[in-house]
Structures are given as C-alpha cells and as structure tokens.
Amino acid sequence: MLKDTQKKTVMAYLIDIYSKRILIEFQQEKLMPSEAQDIFSDYVQFIKQTKLLFEYSYFIVNCHKAYTVYISYLQERKLYNDCLIICKELDSLLSTDDIERKAIVYHTIGTLYLALKFLRKAEEAFEVSLNLIDKIPSNRREEEELVKVQISLIDHLSCLKLERKDHINALDLLIRCYNLKRTCSGYDSENIATTLVAIARVYKILGRWDDAIEYFTRGADSFERLKGPNNIHTANAFIELAQIRAFQGIYKKAIDLTESALTIYINLNGKDHSSTLRLYTNLIFLSLKLNSNEMIRYYIELISDILNEKEDEISFVLFNEIGNLLRQHKRQQDAITFYQKSKEIFNKLPQKQTKLDQLSVVYCNIANCYLELDNKNEYIEHTKRAVSILNSVYEENDQRIQTLYGKLYQTLSSVNSSEAAFFKQKLMVSH
C-alpha cells in the first residue's frame, strides 16, 4: 500500500493534470452547457475526494479554480440562475476565515442578481461582500487587484442606493469610490471625472449647494482636460451648475453657465437639435427671472428664427412652452402670440390627427390667458374650440371634456348668457 506522503504526491500530480485538462476543455468554443456541467461535476467530485488528504489551502485552491472557470463559462452564456447555484455551492465550501474569496463570491452573486433584476437581493449581496472586504488587512486591501474589485462593488452598490433614494449612504460610497479610483487610475481618468459628477448630483439632491458646486466644477474641469473643451460631459456639468445658481437666485451666473453649455451643444449637435433648443428655453426662463427685457427679447428672437425654419413637431411643442413661460411671468399678451405660433405650426404638421389633444391644450392655454386678462368673451370662444377638438377625438363623457363643460357653464353663468343652460344640460346628461 502507498504511504500518505506517496498518496499525496500521486494525487497532487493527478490534480495538476486534471486542472490543466479542464482549463483546455472549457476554452473550446463549441462546448455545450450539458457537456460543461459533466466536466465540471466530474472534476469537483474528484477534487472533493482529496479533501481529507490535503490541507484546506491546497484543496480550496484547486477547487476554486474549477468553480471560477465554470462560473465564467455560465456568465458568458447568460445562464445566471445556474451560475447562482454554483456560486452558493462554492461559498459553502469556503471556510469562514477565507474572507477574500468569500467577498469575491458575494460580489459575483450580486452581479448575477443585478442581471436578473432582483435589485434588493443584489444590494444585500454587495453589502455582504463590502463588509467582508473591510475585514481584510489594509495592506492587502490596498493592492490594485482588490481595489478594482472594491470599485466595481461600490459602483454597483451606490447605484442601488440611489435607486432607493438612500442618498446619504450612496454619498458615502461614492466618496469612498472616488478615493479608491484616485489610487488606482490617476487623477485624469474618465472614471474619476464621472464619479466627481455623481457625487455632485447627490450633494445637489441633498441641497448642499456649495459642495455640489465644488464637485461639478472639478468634474467639468476633469472632462475638459480629458476630452477638450467641446465635450457633452462638461456641457452637462455646466447645466447642473446653472440649475444650482438658479435655485440660489443668482440668475446672471446661471445664464453665463447655460450659455457656455449652449456653445458646446451647438458645436456638437447643431443649433436646431432638440437638446440645443431646450437650452434656449432655459435661457428665456432665466431672463424672465432676471426680468431683463433686452435678454428676453434676444433669446426669444434666436429660438423663434430656428423654430420658424424647422416647422416641425418640436417647433409646435416649444412655441407652446415659451408661451407657458411668458404666462407664468404675467406676460399674457406675449404668451398669446407664442400660443398662436404653436397653432400655426400645428396646421403644417403631417399626421396631425394623432396630436389633436395637444392642440386642445394650446387652445386652453390661450383661453386661460384671456381669462387672466379679464376678456371672458375670448376665453369662452377658445374654450369652445378646445371642446370641439376634444369631441372629435374622445367620447363626450371624457373627463377633460367634462371639465371644460363645467368651466364654460360657470363663465357663461357669470355673464348671464343663455348658453349657460346648454352646458349645464351637457353636464347633467353625462352624469
């Protein structure tokens, strides 16, 4: 009979050969899942027979190799449920002291749950993984291989926290991620700039304006160094900064930042792109807040020239939105002008029958402007037109139509019109 030392030598030799064989077989492109499962099961069964013969460290190294190769195979083929079973089996084989391997297994489990859209389970697995990593000695934890695992883990976990609006914990994770990326990738990497902006957005949500401004500015500067002055990331950071300045009531600074973003958007997308046009409407809004007639007129003329040239659905929508902005700032007569422009564009649209409910909104907006100007006759006429449009699309008991019937009845009653009875009857019939 062979002595234990001889057995170990023979088994170690067999394990080495078997390990090399399984690696080669799993590299075959045409390896079917059923064949892969058989190869994996045979190997693991063989390895488990050696458990009592070898120390844990030797046994688990070889066992871990097989599981890792098979897990990668299943992940590549999107066999996530099968992969979860294998990951949990591997976890059961690992000792409680094998913290690093357990952390990586739970990180994999988290990514699998994420792929399966089980977000809460993914978050729980990532948290287990992060707690295990925190128990690893700091000198090992700071090695680049583990730093990359932590970055991936924290990126996922912070996104899940933000999804649940757990902004405080998400912020802590993002700051930790930023510090890790600095040690791993260097200051000018795109990853770092993206994380800076993500931190800024959370500060913005929390109303910590000064911190948000600092991080958005740093993010914008980083993207500019990486990609040059004309890049969408810098432009979007300027837009976020402009929003904060508007919240603070610093409208002139908000306008300057929005203009900087606009210049980039024009260079990248052109002046008539929908996202560029949105920035023009932002500038109109800020000018109204600043109450600068000169600036309001300037930005309205710029966007009007573009929209009149386009004459498409975007023009129809944006002329209406400009009217809304003007009306909100007590400029009803100017608002009516832009609502009328929206109507004119609508008449030139193809397939406009599918957008009649939107046109009814424009008529209602005009009607409301006239009501605010105390011109009840025009209010009644435009509301009737809105009702007529809706009646061509919906049944008479539609809530929108009934609401307008009610408003017409009230207004007509206030001017002692004989028509009031007609709309009162309409309301009674529908009920």
Largest sheet: none
Alpha-carbon distance between the termini?
98 Å
Total beta-strand segments? 0
The unreliable regions are none
Order of helices and strands: HHHHHHHHHHHHHHHHHHHHH
Structural notes for this entry:
- This protein has 431 residues and is an all-alpha fold.
- 80% of the residues lie in helices and 0% in strands.
- The chain is built from 21 helices and no strands.
- The protein has helices spanning 4-26, 33-48, 56-76, 80-93, 99-115, 119-133, 138-141, 144-163, 167-185, 190-205, 209-227, 232-247, 251-269, 274-290, 293-310, 313-328, 332-346, 356-372, 376-391, 399-414, 420-430.
- Helix 18 packs antiparallel against helix 19.
- The longest helix is centred in the N-terminal third of the chain and has 23 residues, at 4-26.
- 36% of the residues are buried.
Question: Can you give me a brief rundown of this structure?
Answer:
With 431 residues, this protein is an all-alpha fold. The protein is built from 21 helices and no strands.
Helix and strand arrangement:
Blueprint: H1 4-26, H2 33-48, H3 56-76, H4 80-93, H5 99-115, H6 119-133, H7 138-141, H8 144-163, H9 167-185, H10 190-205, H11 209-227, H12 232-247, H13 251-269, H14 274-290, H15 293-310, H16 313-328, H17 332-346, H18 356-372, H19 376-391, H20 399-414, H21 420-430
Helix pairs in contact: 1-2, 1-3, 2-3, 3-4, 4-5, 5-6, 6-8, 8-9, 9-10, 10-11, 11-12, 12-13, 13-14, 14-15, 14-16, 15-16, 16-17, 17-18, 18-19, 19-20, 20-21
